[in-house]
Amino acid sequence: MEKQHTDPPPGATPELDDLKVKEEATLARDVGLGQVLEVEATPEQERKVLRKLDIILIWGGILMCHAAAKNFGGLMAARFFLGVGEAAIAPGFSLITGMFYKREEQPARQSAWFLGNCISTIIGGVVAYGIGSIKTNAVSSWQLLFLILGAITAFISFFLIVLLPDSPKKAIFLTKPERAIAMHRTLANKTGVADEGSFRWDQAWQALRDPQTWFLVLYTFSVNLCNGGITSFSSIIINGFGFSQIRSLLMQMPLGGAQVVFLILTAGIATFVPHTRILMMIFNTLTSLIGMILVWKLDEDNRRGRLTGLALGAVFAVNIPLSLSIISSNVAGFTKRSTTSALLFVAYCVGNIVGPQFFYTSEEPHYPTGMKAATSGLALGAFFLMCLLVYYIWENKRRDRLYGVPEQMTESQELALGLSSKTDLEIEDFRYVV
């Protein structure tokens, strides 16, 4: 979901009439609209679309097409289709992770693939700075940036198409007995990992009525009010600290560094200390809230303090793998899990659409209204996570009183449950991971 910011720095695109702040917000909105429209078709077709993840190849090609934009309209069209291409990637990785790993293993595995995003933020700053320093008459530096990053993405996609399976049964790097073991070891998750049935409308409807769905959706929307602003305007905000336009790209590296540190810390705790996933998400969200307050309230001449605040403000993004692990661990039934993932991604997109609209041209580069929206969103996000935690604890205790403490299931019972496509609300022995 969260991605390396690849917009050209302000003032670096004379061919595009020096994009104004409002146009930057429109471009951010356009990506979100493309994601929303694509994700509407995702749940039913997800398994087919993600079988080879060739959407990543398309995404890389669209990224390269940005270099052909001659005006704002062309760039807007490219950004829209970029959102379309991205829509299935994070939900697809989440579903695949849930098929291969046990519930207790998922936070670390979800975080492992998301770590690449954090590292790309660090490396991306250096790459953007280096490419921005290249002087050539053939293409502009910002065009070269899109061409290089798009080509790398397209190249990597070929390895994923060949090597990354959509289920343990299709894993070419496993022998037939190993595939059976991989399928069997995840049956204890009770989330229907062996279910390969068709789309079920009753499960989709149940997802819409489940309180956990809406707590996660509201949390995701709220925090992405902040994400939309940071992703779209971080270089402008840093430029407002007194750094040059090209150096502002380099100074985005601390954002990725902070994410790496907090991702390893909180994912490690969530993996090895029971019942801490949501607590770690709350911790990350409050850390970002403090960071954004520092950016907003510190004196203008305190560049180090405000840059530190901006780096901390990006920490909430590492909650993405933890929230995805909650879905893969706590939502049973393939259709229900796919629907919940789709709703979460819609909330992510809508938050990224709405967030940048609070960043007004007249308030550049400090954006007080945008900062108010970002801090309010983070505060609301922490509140909805608390609500989710309380709901899970209450529901687990209610089920213990009603059905008794869950007993160890036999292998045949686990297999039957894995093939049954029952949801978490229908399985009496199901207890939510917190």
Layout of strands and helices, then pairs:
Blueprint: H1 21-39, H2 42-49, H3 55-65, H4 72-86, H5 89-100, H6 106-132, H7 141-163, H8 176-185, H9 201-209, H10 211-239, H11 245-250, H12 253-272, H13 277-297, H14 303-313, H15 319-330, H16 334-354, H17 368-403, H18 411-420
Helix pairs in contact: 1-4, 1-10, 1-16, 2-16, 3-4, 3-7, 5-6, 5-15, 6-7, 6-12, 6-15, 9-16, 10-16, 10-17, 12-13, 12-14, 13-14, 13-15, 13-17
Main location: membrane
Membrane topology: Multi-pass membrane protein
Keywords: Membrane, Transmembrane, Transmembrane helix, Transport
Descriptors for this entry?
globular; mainly alpha; 434 residues; disordered N terminus; 18 helices; Growth Hormone, Chain: A; MFS_trans_sf
Short summary:
Its main location: membrane. The protein has 434 residues and is mainly α.
Notes on the structure:
The N terminus is likely disordered. This protein has one domain: MFS general substrate transporter like domains (Growth Hormone, Chain: A, Up-down Bundle). Helices cover 69% and strands 0% of the residues. The radius of gyration is 22 Å and the shape is globular. The protein has 18 helices and no strands. α2 crosses α16, α6 packs antiparallel against α15 and α10 packs parallel to α16. The protein is an all-alpha fold and 434 residues long. Pfam families: MFS_1 (PF07690). Its main location: membrane. This is Pantothenate transporter. GO terms for molecular function: transmembrane transporter activity. One of its GO terms (cellular component) is membrane.
